[in-house]
Structure formats: structure tokens, C-alpha cells
Design brief:
Strand order of the largest sheet: 10-11-9-8-7-6-5-2-12
Strand content: 15-25%
CATH architecture of the largest domain: Alpha-Beta Barrel
Helix content: 40-55%
Distance between the termini: 29 Å
Number of strands: 18
Structural class: alpha/beta
Largest sheet: 9 strands, mixed
Radius of gyration: 21 Å
CATH class of the largest domain: Alpha Beta
Number of domains: 2
CATH superfamily of the largest domain: Aldolase class I
CATH topology of the largest domain: TIM Barrel
Shape: globular
């Protein structure tokens, strides 16, 4: 679907958004694609990166004409791909472009970073305005890294972390993967010991997912990990991180008090976000859309001053309610049910409340002081619990 920016504005009607919004920028290039990755990415080439930078700056300026008048950018997230292939100067220029184009009150700028990134760039990224590095460490076990097909070694990870400490980088997130072939109880213990030693302000722990169409499926089929063992590993992280003082505030995420990821909270709290770059998704009011996952078509569209969309949905009130419930239940605090009903006074909640009572009785949901939540020990069953409630 091709659409001009003015036509997009007409379809959205630019209804007022609640509070500030998050800005996501998708950098679509990698030196080599990890065999388990299902995100949109392409082989890195300097020329393509420069075209992406030029096109993105144009897209920032055009998007700001529609979204930059009454709303403030509060968070910026550089995702990918491998956005740590951008130099400090390139990051600084993009942040400056955003600040020039949009009204802003920026509280957080996240850069996804691979451990093989040049450690000499850390100081420059910090000076450019990056406040948070999300490091794809995956594991502090070289054997597991090799099985995953990662390009970095444990030595590279330590080198980058030593530099981060030297330049006093404001906030670090460690991305771990668990439930993996080759992972042992000792692997998890070693990873937790490293967290204890380095004290990152945020930790994410993910299970492998969506392996049907990625090369890692072959590895998995040769050495599958039983669901019971995957659950044990996940729960070992949860218990270990809790003992280290981390709050398990979202199914896959842990933080020290006050260091939750503000950008990702916008997704879970159903707040507006704007995605720029190929394959980037956006949600604004009653509308969500996704830019086409094709670099050449995206850059051609930007050049001709329109968007090429892979998806465009105008959500009904019922669909918005369901999404708000599903996203909100990912958070440990859950949903303010009373406020939810007040926000959707035109909808019938009887079906939901009947299901809610059943799930509370079974222990799959908790209810306290008007809030509804999934108990932490049930997090791994969250998808089925949400489906039981909203369908």
C-alpha cells in the first residue's frame, strides 16, 4: 500500500495522544545475520548505510510535519539490524535532526549494540546523547555463543564492558537468551555471577521463538531443549536476578528501581510510538501500520515523498481494548481494571469479567486494589492466559 503523508494524516485524523511518544529508528544492516534472527536485516555495505542515513533524515523531516506539532518525543530507540555499526558522528547527527524537527523532552536514548562494536566509539556515543546501551551479550559462555552462531567472543564482550566502565556509560542492559542447546545450569550461574559483578541497571532474558523460517531451526531439531528444561532455566534467571535486587517488571525484563526501559514501556502501556525506516512499526491512536520490509522500496518511497506500507489497520474500539489488555498483562503490575472500564464506557465488559473471575479462581490471574495481573510464577503461561481472557 502506498500512501502520502497528508493522506496518512487524514486517515489517522491525528486524534490527541496520551502524553508523549516514543520514536523507533530501524537500522536494517548487519555484518552477518544470526541464524536465529527473524528481524528484517540486510548485509552491511557502506554505500547502503549512507543511502539509509540520507533517506532517514528526509523521513524524519517529513514525519515531523504531521506528528511534531502537538506531541513530544520522549524516547528514541535505535534498533535493527546492528545500529552499533553507526559511528558516534552519525548517531549525533540523527539525534540533532530529531531535536530540530520535533518538539521533544527526551529522557532516554537507547542504542542496540553488539559486543564486537568498536570500544573506542563508546565515549562518542555517550557524548552524542545515547543514554542507554542494550548489549546483545546473549551469554557469557563461548560454547553457547558458537552454537548460536554469534560473531562475537567472550573476550570481545569483556573488552567492550571494560570500556563502558571506563567512560562511565549511563545505563547498560544485558540481553540474554536462555533455553538453548548447549546451555547448562553452570552457564546460567556464570551469567548471574557476571551480572552480580558488573551490576548493569537492566537485564532482559528471552526464550528462542519463531524458529520455523530461520536457519537455526536445523540446530534446534538436532538438539531440542525440552519445555520443562526451558522453564527451569527461565525460572533460574528470575530467582537469581530477584536475589540480586532486580525487579521482574515485565515478562522478559528486569531492572533496578527507576531503570525500566522507558521506550519499551510505551509498547506495554499502549502509548503512541512512531517507527521510521524499513520494517518499522507505528501505533498512533486507533491506527497501527508497518513500513514495507524492503530497503529499496522504502528508499524509493521516501525519495518520492510517500510511504510504502506493509500493513495499515484502523482498530475498532473492541480491538483496541483487547490489545490494551494483552500488552498490559505483560507487566508485573498488570492493568488498572477500573480505569480500563472508564476508558471504554461504550463497551460491554461482561464477557471479560466472567472470564476474569474464572482465571482469578484458578490462580492464573491475580486481582488486588482494582488491578488485574498475571502472577510472576505464571509468566511462562502468559500467552494462553491472555488468550483465555480476551477471546
Amino acid at each position: 500500500m502506498k500512501i502520502s503523508y497528508p493522506d496518512l494524516a487524514d486517515k489517522i485524523h491525528l486524534e490527541p495522544v496520551e502524553g508523549k511518544f516514543g520514536l523507533y529508528l530501524h537500522f536494517p544492516f548487519c555484518i552477518g545475520k544470526c541464524p536465529y534472527c527473524h528481524f528484517y536485516s540486510l548485509p552491511y555495505a557502506e554505500q547502503d548505510k549512507n543511502i539509509w542515513l540520507e533517506s532517514l533524515r528526509r523521513e524524519i523531516a517529513r514525519a515531523a510535519r504531521i506528528f511534531g506539532h502537538s506531541s513530544l518525543v520522549e524516547t528514541i530507540y535505535f534498533g535493527g539490524g546492528t545500529p552499533s555499526l553507526m559511528s558516534p558522528e552519525e548517531i549525533a547527527k540523527l539525534i540533532a535532526d530529531i531535536k530540530s524537527a520535533f518538539h521533544h523532552e527526551i529522557k532516554e536514548v537507547t542504542l542496540e549494540c553488539n559486543p564486537e562494536a568498536p570500544s573506542g566509539w563508546l565515549r562518542g556515543w555517550r557524548e552524542a546523547g545515547v543514554t542507554r546501551l542494550s548489549l546483545g551479550v546473549q551469554s557469557f559462555d563461548d560454547k553457547v555463543l558458537k552454537i548460536l552462531g554469534r560473531r562475537h567472543s567472550l573476550e570481545m564482550t569483556w573488552k567492550l564492558l571494560e570500556k563502558a566502565k571506563e567512560v562511565n556509560f549511563p545505563s547498560l542492559n544485558f540481553d540474554f537468551m536462555t533455553g538453548l542447546p548447549g546451555e547448562t545450569e553452570a552457564t546460567v550461574e556464570a551469567n548471574l555471577e557476571t551480572v552480580k559483578k558488573l551490576k548493569p541497571r537492566h537485564v532482559s532474558v528471552y526464550l528462542l521463538e519463531e524458529l520455523e523460517s530461520v536457519p537455526f531451526r536445523v540446530v534446534w531439531e538436532k538438539s531440542p531443549v525440552p519445555e520443562e528444561l526451558m522453564a527451569e532455566r527461565f525460572e533460574a534467571y528470575a530467582a537469581g536476578l530477584k536475589n540480586l535486587g532486580y525487579e521482574h517488571y515485565e515478562i522478559s525484563n528486569y531492572a533496578r528501581t527507576g531503570f525500566e526501559c522507558l521506550h519499551n514501556l510505551k509498547y506495554w502501556q499502549y502509548q503512541p510510538f512512531l517507527g521510521l525506516g524499513p520494517a518499522a512499526a507505528s501505533h498512533w491512536g486507533a491506527v497501527r501500520w508497518q513500513t514495507i520490509s524492503d530497503f529499496n522500496k522504502w528508499k524509493a518511497a521516501v525519495k518520492d515523498d510517500f510511504l510504502w506500507l506493509e500493513e495499515f489497520l484502523v482498530l475498532s474500539r473492541q480491538e483496541r481494548l483487547r490489545e490494551k489488555i494483552a500488552f498490559g498483562l505483560r507487566l508485573k503490575v498488570g492493568i488498572n481494571w477500573r480505569q480500563l472500564k472508564a476508558n471504554f464506557p461504550d463497551l460491554d465488559f461482561s464477557h471479560y469479567e466472567q472470564k476474569l473471575d474464572e482465571l482469578v479462581q484458578s490462580g492464573d490471574l491475580g486481582s488486588s486494589d482494582g488491578r488485574v495481573y498475571i502472577p510472576e510464577e505464571k509468566f511462562l503461561l502468559s500467552n494462553s492466559i491472555m488468550a483465555s481472557l480476551i477471546f
